[in-house]
Amino acid sequence: MPVISIHDLTKRFPSVTALDQLTVDIGPGVTGFVGANGAGKSTLIKILLGLQPATSGEATVLDLDVATQGPAIRDRVGYMPEHDCLPPDMSATEFVVHMARMSGLPAASARERTADTLRHVGLYEERYRPIGGYSTGMRQRVKLAQALVHDPRLVFLDEPTNGLDPSGRDEMLGLVRRIGTDFQISVLVTSHLLGELERISDQVVIIDGGRLLRASSTAEFTRATQVLAVEVAAFDSGPDWTAARDRLGHALAGHGLRVVPDGRLLMIDIAREETFDVVRDTAAELDLGLVRMEQRRHRIEEIFRDGAPGHQAGADAGAGGPAGGPVSGPDQGGAHRVRTP
Ligand SMILES: Nc1ncnc2c1ncn2[C@@H]1O[C@H](COP(=O)(O)OP(=O)(O)OP(=O)(O)O)[C@@H](O)[C@H]1O
């Protein structure tokens, strides 16, 4: 049963259509909601919380109607807003207790839940210091704690990694993942960075200009391709990786495999089951060491890079044949911007 159900939802502002006939069902677990800046992510969250009316269309959250049951939704759902909204003179404990009381918790359980939640987000030691002296990462954790303190069934996290450096981002993503796994709270987390959502989400919804581009399980997005990526090192020619790569490439082409170089790698069509053995044996015959041999997986960002939703990016990487030029293989890097603002 979907946790969130959105049907034909449109939101028009005077000068822009923020959501355009959006229809999508979102199941339990961690859902990554991705789109460029201005794609309509925050607008959707506000409509789902009953804080803003839609222009047309319907949506339910935990089976509650967003148009008429906003307060009941906000009782059951936690919300971490994108922008900083923290009082600098209060400590994390004071602020989170206050938010717990606002959600209707009695004083004693508000204090107890606050201590538990701050421990969970890694702020226990610092909980009595004024928020004004906190780093960006700590402030993000306070916002996360206040979203969790009333023990919601579902949380909306709007760009929780905003402003964080790579290690802070990794820690935040780990926390978000644990909310879904350890606490069994469903999560809708937004980002304009595709790579980070791919890592932590059970399903991913991609919007562009307020329209649905694609919604599917992460496993479906990142399923294995029929391309084997191989990197070799030459024992006898030192650091000349180009020569080693090309020797192997030509030998494999001689075995009837379709091979395309891509930087230090060879992209090889997995035409038959023995392909792995042929690569291993040929590298050994040529006295080359196998540094890496892995079946490529689709990356979510390929959907954007290659334009068309559902495009079989990477699956035909070897189609150029042995004589084909270098192809741009699946991305090796980390998170990518969908579109810079
Ligand atoms: N209250 C408003 N009045 C007018 N236009 C608005 C309002 N809120 C949002 N918009 C516009 O709607 C579009 C979608 O904005 P929204 O904030 O939902 O995008 P987003 O995907 O969350 O991006 P960001 O992360 O940059 O906030 C943008 O063009 C924005 O300028």
TrEMBL record:
Residues 307-316 have a biased composition (Low complexity). The keyword Zinc does not apply. Residues 317-327 have a biased composition (Gly residues). Pfam families: ABC_tran. CDD domains: ABC_DR_subfamily_A (cd03230). Residues 305-341 are annotated as: Disordered. Residues 4-234 form the ABC transporter domain. The keyword Secreted does not apply. GO terms for molecular function: ATP binding; ATP hydrolysis activity. Coiled coil: none annotated. It comes from the Bacteria. InterPro entries: AAA+_ATPase, ABC_transporter-like_ATP-bd, P-loop_NTPase. Keywords: ATP-binding, Nucleotide-binding, Transport. Belongs to the ABC transporter superfamily. This is ABC-2 type transport system ATP-binding protein. It comes from Actinopolymorpha cephalotaxi. The lineage of its organism: Bacteria, Bacillati, Actinomycetota, Actinomycetes, Propionibacteriales.
